[in-house]
Design brief:
The protein is built from twelve helices and eleven strands. By secondary structure, the protein is of the alpha/beta class. Strands 7-6-8-5-9-11 form a six-stranded mixed sheet, with helices on both faces. A five-stranded mixed sheet has the order 2-1-3-10-4.
């Protein structure tokens, strides 16, 4: 009888204990194609660390830089959609072949400075969010690159001096710009740029200051013309199904810290640009400031590139374009 009472009391005790469910820890790989010290890799790493801390380690992202996971830039929209990697940084123009609305960020001479670029992205953000969702992912944040200029062997001070250049470009619109000025564009992987400059296959590169530093351009080039031809932007996205499987509190953390990271990246881009230019100057590159006349001529000669894009642009792309021009009063 005593044993029966003990068992009965044990059952009653167990029935009154509240069991707190233990959340399963989530581990994600986060991909970056940029070198470890590049600001975008640093930003993604900082983002991951803040998320881990805010979720008490329940959501941890392991950041792989330098393309270590083997994914190529143009394939990243598909890779995140297909769940091959849950989180990735990607160059927006790099995936624009799959989603035409993203091409707006590389229309040459549409934006004239970082403030205008920020305005364009603020207008475009909700439309980009919609496009990302169509691709089964959610944008966590969008961050800028410094504007693209020309890095050359010979000093360029006029439009005429651009004729005949053999220039490495990184996207379709950049190639169209060089064709418009009478130069020859070359679509080369960045890994081949240095040797191509050494051998004379190319004599110039269209890119931003951080890329020039990464490539040690001062060893093979002499001048930098900060033309702000276009300004690239990156976005960090997460696979939508993976995001939706998270507890609501963790989803909220990702969104909140994503917004904070975006603000910080935009706040730092001007300083980053100047620091990278200074490194190039210290190593022998001479900065050649373009004249108002040259910029005006380039804006005019590239009008057709922007107009042609508009003809076949998606409706949302046209809305972004029109709203932007209205706000900058052009």
């Amino acid at each position: 009888m005593k044993n029966f009472v003990r068992v009965l009391l044990g059952v009653v005790f167990l029935a009154t204990v509240t069991v707190t469910p233990v959340l399963a820890k989530t581990n994600w790989n986060a991909n970056s194609v940029w070198p470890p010290k590049n600001l975008h890799s640093v930003g993604l790493t900082d983002f991951a660390e803040k998320v881990k801390k805010a979720t008490n380690g329940e959501l941890e992202m392991v950041v792989h830089t330098g393309g270590a996971l083997g994914f190529k830039g143009p394939d990243l929209l598909k890779a995140v959609r297909d769940g091959l990697v849950p989180v990735s940084d990607m160059l927006i123009s790099g995936v624009a072949g799959d989603e035409k609305i993203f091409q707006i960020v590389t229309l040459p001479f549409l934006v004239r400075n970082f403030d205008e670029l920020r305005l364009l992205i603020e207008i475009a953000h909700p439309y980009f969010d919609k496009s990302a969702q169509k691709w089964g992912q959610k944008i966590l944040y969008i961050a800028p690159w410094p504007g693209a200029g020309l890095w050359t062997k010979n000093k360029i001070t006029t439009l005429e001096e651009m004729k005949g250049l053999k220039t490495r470009t990184y996207d379709k619109n950049g190639a169209l710009v060089m064709e418009a000025v009478g130069a020859t564009p070359f679509a080369l992987p960045f890994s081949e740029v240095y040797t191509s400059l050494q051998t004379g296959l190319i004599d110039s590169v269209m890119t931003s200051t951080p890329t020039a530093v990464d490539g040690k351009f001062w060893e093979v080039l002499k001048y930098y013309e900060p033309l702000f031809i276009t300004a690239a932007t990156d976005m960090v996205t997460v696979n939508l199904k993976a995001f939706q499987k998270l507890p609501k509190a963790q989803q909220d953390v990702l969104v909140k810290i994503g917004k904070e990271t975006e603000e910080a990246m935009w706040a730092n881009v001007k300083t980053w640009d100047k620091e990278q230019e200074a490194i190039s100057n210290k190593n022998g590159i001479e900065t050649v400031k373009p004249s108002t006349k040259v910029i005006g001529e380039l804006e005019k000669i590239t009008e057709n590139i922007r107009a042609e894009w508009l003809k076949s642009a998606p409706a949302d792309g046209k809305k972004i374009y029109d709203e932007f021009l209205k706000k900058v009063k052009r």
